[in-house]
Amino acid sequence: MTKxxxxxxxxxxxxxxxxxxxxxxxxxxxMEIKPESIVKVAKYIFKDLGARFNIASGLDARDHMxxxxxxxxxxxxxxxxxxxxxxxxxxxxxxxLANTFExxxxxxxxxxxxxxxxxxxxxxxxxxxxxxxxxxxxYPLRRDYKEWDKKAIRDRGx
Amino acid sequence: MAKTIVPIGPYHPLQEEPEFFTLTVEGETVIDIDVKVGxxxxxxxxxxxxxxxxQATFLVERICGICSTSHPYAHTRAVEDVISVEVPExxxxxxxxxxxxxxxxxxxxxxxxxxxxxxxxxxxxxxxKLREExxxxxxxxxxxxxxxxxxxxxGVRRDIKAEDIPVCLKxxxxxxxxxxxxxxxxxxxxxxxxxxxxVGILSKEDAINYSALGPTSRASGVxxxxxxxxxxGAYDKMQWDMIVTKNGDVFDKAVVRILETFESIKxxxxxxxxxPGGDIDLNLKSIPAGEGIGHIEAPRGETFHYVKTxxxxxxxxxxxxxxxxxxxxxxxxxxxxxTISDATIILAAIDPxxxxxxxxxxxxxxxxMLYNGEDLVRLSQEKTEKIRRKLGKKA
Lengths: 158, 395
What we know:
By secondary structure, chain A is of the alpha/beta class. Chain A has helices spanning 3-13, 38-48, 105-115, and strands at 18-25, 28-33, 52-61, 64-73, 78-87, 93-95, 118-120. Chain A has a domain at 3-95: Beta Polymerase, domain 2, CATH 3.30.460. In chain A, the strands form 2 sheets. A 5-stranded mixed sheet of chain A has the order 1-2-5-4-3. Chain A has a two-stranded parallel sheet with strand order 6-7. The radius of gyration of chain A is 17 Å and the shape is elongated. The model of chain A has no long low-confidence stretch (mean pLDDT 91). Helix content of chain B is 48%, strand content 14%. Chain B has 15 helices and 10 strands. Chain B starts with a strand and ends with a helix. In chain B, 46% of the residues are buried. Chain B has 2 domains: 44-349, Orthogonal Bundle (Cytochrome-c3 Hydrogenase, chain B), CATH 1.10.645; 363-395. Chain B has helices at residues 44-48, 53-61, 70-82, 89-117, 121-142, 164-187, 190-196, 204-209, 214-218, 226-229, 250-273, 323-327, 331-334, 340-349, 373-394; strands at 3-8, 20-26, 29-36, 151-152, 155-156, 290-298, 301-309, 315-321, 362-363, 369-371. A 3-stranded antiparallel sheet of chain B has the order 1-2-3, with no helix packed on it. A 3-stranded antiparallel sheet of chain B has the order 6-7-8. Chain B has a two-stranded antiparallel sheet with strand order 4-5. Chain A binds chain B through residues 24-25, 27-28, 30, 52-55, 57, 59, 68, 70, 72, 74-75, 77, 79, 81, 101-103, 105-107, 127-131, 140-141, 155, 157, and chain B through 37-38, 41, 43, 45-47, 50, 81, 84, 206, 208-211, 224, 226, 229-231, 291, 293, 295, 302, 304, 306, 308, 316-317, 319, 321, 325-326, 329, 332.
């Protein structure tokens, strides 16, 4: 198993799902895929290629929401990051990976409450980090986030 | 049999951290468990977006008091990954020394607490006494017992002085005989065997499914260690062994950590003895737009940082993932089916992160020491004696 063989294999197998491949360096590859293909591509990488799921990271990129799913191939020192872009004009949702592997369970709960992205089929989308009294529809990692609690004491920064 | 719900927390009786476990038990057997976290959610990812890369290194150092170097290490590597640069050799060695010193004291701290949780306070006293020596070494090297502030994007902030190296080596050597004794006391102890063997087993399949990290996964036979697999720092320069056991129970998790401590001592000693010369800093001026990932093997497993930049001196997005985020959900696989008396040690066996730094010395503004530790103990005893006399008179 080498880096080139893995990328070639993925590109051939999922030719209609992959939008773009960015070969950043010898240890990092970013691969943009269609949102609806996330489960089958992630499942193949995790179950068949035996990669470890690091984490997912969500980002509010003005015109779209972006989620990166990071996978590490320990044997060959490589991280593949699957990038999906969700249009803000449509409903913000994507299929959940929690049923495919447990490791995705908590991070999907976290992205759900911090960015407001719905994970379809997630078994348990309760709040993970935010307090129970946090209002519905307020997402702290979004760009349009405004202070909602007038009584809160916050570090205003220097 | 009737089901009972046993709440533990949010002020956890043993672990000095707010977390709330709900154990559903039938008789003595745990049949379901749920956890509520987030009492300490500080919004550091959001805060980091308003800090420069240099400031963020100090910010993430405050995430954890015990593994305080792992977050700056991962963060600086993520920033360096944006421009794909390698730091100078000497900086790599210094980073490795600090990271491994931290691993030694972190593993000893866990070992002590694990002994304490099991009611074996001798282990607790010994392990924490040894840990003091390592903290002294860290203080000599960095000026601090915790939160070393040694890292910056592009290198390290302080050099190691040549005259400090023999002192540190002597201190590290001095703990080895006692550590060997402690290792025997834990690994050969029949009571500990009875208490921890076969308890809270995390199978290899579960460890992979949950993507468990660090000693938690290595105890289950998953041979993954970033220091070997994705070498960074100076880990590929010397001979050391990855510790892997196969049973996945609490006992094996303890064994992995104890044996890893010896490997870390080996690594620190090699680095101190073979410290190369040269620069310690690349003097990075600006970070262009791009993305970077930094991951390192912290004492509890992989710490993962992702940074997205836009050419300014602040990140657009900074994602932090601490190892306990992946290790804690394994409670579902390990606690259910066990007795309630074992639940505490199983939950503690993943080494969830807690901080405990306590020390005081009184100095005047010119730096002259007015009281040292012994004086403070004496003052405290005198005060107790005074109160005792006062109360005695009243009575």
